[in-house]
Write a structure and sequence with these properties.
The chain is α+β, with helices and mostly antiparallel strands. It has one domain: Alpha-Beta Complex (Sulfite Oxidase, Chain A, domain 2). It has 9 helices and 13 strands. The strands form 2 sheets. Strands 1, 4, 5, 8, 9, 10, 12 and 13 form an 8-stranded mixed beta sheet that branches. A 5-stranded mixed beta sheet has the order 3-2-11-6-7. The N terminus is likely disordered. The structure holds ligand MTE.
């Protein structure tokens, strides 16, 4: 994100879907209900209206699979958008564990296979709005992060949640450069982490996450800029103090802890008022909280969002 924005999508060959690990896809599919779970209110006379207002689906057209998997930000592999798709095959996603610790009564190291089965999977179509002013619409597969956090029983001191990505420069060549301070760390306030929109994510487009999208497990927080959704996480730590993220360390004037999508607060080096949906020619207005204001604006009631950007 330190580099000038390059909006062009290079034509690069799609990895045939057959090449993805069939075994893991089958495991994912078995545990997954791949039908979108639209909470259609019983009183809704018109299912279309219900679907439009659902927090789990969108009227927007989905971004093609090829763009989602070939236009990535994953600095552990490359700072080029096309780099992660080429390079992320070196990431070994099995065996994989996620340590959940800190201000919890029942700290635990979860094996990825156990995490896949912890709660029912849902398909959720979310907007992803990158801080660089492009966006996508992605059909993720996962379940609410709250399902996992409940398992470890947070203490009364748990006010924040810190996420840490794998640190292994052998597997992640980008970690041999100092573009960010490694490992990649992100954080949420506990109520943000427990919000039903915050998704523990294992797949997209009905299949296991491609490595370049954060396999085998990532967080997705749709009302915040994309960098608040850390990939390939190995640790979740509940804390009393607000975590300091990798991006806050890299540029505290540019990347705040909250980083809620906000068209009214420009990034110091560019406007956030509009965005270009990947694949589109024209820009579109950016929506407050990325279009999820109805669901999340109350979390920030009374806060000065210019100060807490
Ligand atoms: N997580 C890690 N570990 N490393 C990264 O570089 N980039 C972030 C986020 N998560 C990043 C990360 C940014 S800036 C964005 S926009 C999204 O991942 C991109 O996710 P996608 O490539 O799946 O679209």
């Amino acid at each position: 994100m330190k580099k000038p924005i390059d909006m062009r999508i290079q034509p690069s060959e799609i990895t045939p879907r057959e090449l993805y690990d069939r075994r893991h896809f089958i495991q994912l599919a078995v545990g997954a209900s791949l039908t979108a779970l639209f909470p259609v209110p019983a009183f809704a006379g018109d299912a279309m209206d219900a679907a439009k207002t659902s927090v789990y689906t969108l009227p927007d057209e989905k971004t093609p699979f090829k763009d989602i998997t070939h236009y990535n930000n994953f600095y552990e592999f490359s700072t080029d958008k096309e780099g992660p798709a080429e390079l992320a095959h070196t990431l070994k996603t099995r065996p994989w564990t996620v340590t959940v610790e800190g201000e919890v009564h029942k700290p635990k190291i979860f094996d990825i296979e156990e995490l896949l089965k912890l709660a029912a999977m849902e398909e959720r179509i979310y907007r992803l709005r990158c801080v660089e002013a492009w966006s996508m619409v992605i059909p993720w597969i996962g379940y609410p992060l709250s399902e996992l956090i409940k398992q470890v029983e947070p203490t009364g001191n748990a006010k924040f949640v810190e996420f840490t990505t794998l640190y292994d420069p052998m597997q992640m060549p980008g970690q041999r450069s100092s573009v960010l301070e490694w490992p990649y760390v992100e954080g949420l306030r506990i109520d943000e982490a427990m919000h039903p929109l915050t998704l523990l994510t294992f797949g997209l487009y009905g299949q296991v996450l491609p490595n370049q999208n954060g396999a085998p497990i990532r967080i997705t927080v749709p009302w915040k800029y994309g960098f608040k959704s850390p990939k390939s996480i190995v640790k979740i730590r509940l804390t009393e103090q607000q975590p300091v993220s990798a991006w806050m360390k890299a540029g505290p004037e540019e990347y705040g802890f909250y980083s809620n999508v906000n068209p009214d607060i420009d990034h110091p080096r560019w406007s956030q008022a509009k965005e270009r949906r990947v694949g589109d020619f024209f820009k579109r207005p950016t929506l407050p909280f990325n279009g999820y204001a109805e669901q999340v604006a109350h979390l920030y009631a009374g806060m000065d969002l210019k100060k807490h950007f």
